[in-house]
Design brief:
The mean pLDDT is about 95. The strands form four sheets. The protein has an eight-stranded parallel β-barrel with strand order 5-6-7-8-10-12-13-14, surrounded by four helices. Helix 3 runs parallel beside helix 5. It is about 45% helix and about 10% strand. Helix 6 links the parallel strand 7 and strand 8.
Length: about 425
């Protein structure tokens, strides 16, 4: 039985196409800066929103029509759902997928039963990976949905819950290795606090550091060589999460001796909630050598929560790809569509429309970024703006040869600093718009 009987493989038809089930910009074989679009973008479909999202929200019940899913919590239904997922991903032409353990298999009455359920569905995932050639970008454990995690998982006040979370990550990490996953992600959905009056913050952070060291040790023990990732998010569901933004994550990793073992998985909607742009989070992280992967989505700036909408803004995707190209790409990470169709877009075909639009937006952003880089106008301006650091006193400062005393003597002799030059922000924004338009 096919889940999408009326949908054929999505093809590239070019910018003039008006076919809603065709790519206008994403030609997986087109070479940009020496690599194909497929290799640059490494698109991944998320299991949780695309195949577990129901359309429910705090104000209304489920709306999604998913004929292949009978709504039961059975392993049989989970297997059927997995086959539908691979049919969708294959027809879309994305090379990767990603999942939480609880997305793909139902939780049982005990940890042992839960692990058996996961093993049963993993066999289906293995079959489908072999059949289609689609690979696992990353796996992760859902350590936030079950009531046991109400106080957190690695940062819980309950040692038994910490132990349960460790067992769950152990299993998920082993499954990720079994499926050939290139990465393993930690998203601390409840690793934070609601009120400091009942929280020992230092102890919780110490426990989180210990938990992640245990993961590193177990990966080494089982021979998992994929990249560990942390996904920053400032709030929601907790008032404050310890992985609040890229800078906080990098500081935490350094403080707990984990910096060499982890990179970051950045998300646009999370950057917005942290009061940053995605370009800021990308540039900061990449400058620290910690850029690993991205979740491709966007938020509604009129709403103050994580709406996880599909990216369609070419300006946003061009900014993202400028930074990603500047720092050499994402592999073994990718562009992972942690995005969901709107509650009102409830038919299965809407899943195709959403992903096609997101893939085209990033393909267009890639082409815009490559054109900007090839003409070099922005790079030339930035280099010229910082030219005072390339020789003379600037070079002495950067090399470490200068100190306060020598700089005082330099300025006493010179009398006054050289005049500043205009930053030309408006000009540069106009130049950027020439490429996007």
């Amino acid at each position: 039985m096919t889940a999408f009987p009326k949908i054929a493989k999505i093809q590239y038809e070019g910018p003039k196409s008006k076919n809603p089930l065709a790519f206008r910009w994403y030609d997986e074989n087109e070479v940009v800066e020496g690599k194909t679009m497929r290799d640059h973008l490494r698109f991944s479909v998320v299991y949780w929103h695309t195949f577990r999202g129901t359309g429910s929200d705090p104000f209304g019940a489920a709306t999604m029509a998913r004929p292949w899913d009978d709504g039961s919590n059975s392993v049989e239904n989970a297997a059927r759902r997995a086959r539908a997922a691979f049919e969708f991903i294959e027809k879309l032409g994305a090379p990767f997928y990603a999942f939480h353990d609880r997305d793909v298999a139902p939780e049982g009455a005990t940890l042992a039963e839960t692990n058996r359920n996961l093993d049963a569905v993993v066999r289906v995932l293995q079959e489908e990976q072999r059949r289609t050639g689609i690979k696992l970008l990353w796996g992760t454990a859902n350590l936030f949905s079950h009531p046991r995690y109400m106080h957190g998982a690695a940062t819980t006040c309950n040692a038994d819950v910490f132990a349960y979370a460790a067992a769950q990550v152990k299993k998920c990490l082993e499954v990720t290795k079994e499926l050939g996953g290139g990465n393993y992600v930690f998203w601390g959905g409840r690793e934070g606090y609601q009120n400091l009056l009942n929280t020992d913050m230092k102890r919780e952070l110490d426990h989180l550091g210990r938990f992640l060291h245990m993961a590193v040790d177990h990966a080494r023990k089982i021979g998992f060589t994929g990249q560990f990732l942390i996904e920053p998010k400032p709030k929601e569901p907790t008032k404050h999460q310890y992985d609040s933004d890229a800078a906080a994550c990098c500081n935490f990793l350094r403080a707990y001796g984990l910096f060499d073992h982890f990179k970051l998985n950045l998300e646009t909607n999370h950057a917005t909630l942290a009061g940053h742009t995605m370009m800021h989070e990308l540039d900061y992280t990449a400058g620290q050598g910690r850029l690993g992967s991205i979740d491709a989505n966007t938020g509604d700036l009129l709403l103050g929560w994580d709406t996880d909408q599909f990216p369609t803004n070419y300006y946003l995707t061009a900014e993202c790809m400028l930074v990603i190209l500047k720092y050499g790409g994402l592999a073994p990470g990718g562009v992972n569509f942690d995005a969901k169709v709107r509650r009102e877009s409830f038919e299965p075909i809407d899943l195709f429309h959403a992903h096609i639009g997101g893939m085209d937006a990033f393909a267009r952003g890639l082409k815009i970024a490559a054109e900007i880089r090839s003409e070099g106008v922005l790079d030339t301006f930035v280099r010229n703006r910082y030219r005072s650091w390339d020789a003379g006193i600037g070079a002495e400062i950067e090399s470490g040869r200068a100190d306060f005393a020598s700089l005082e003597q330099y300025m006493l002799g010179k009398g006054e600093a050289d005049p500043n030059e205009s930053g030309r922000q408006e000009l540069l924004e106009n130049i950027f718009n020439r490429y996007v338009g």
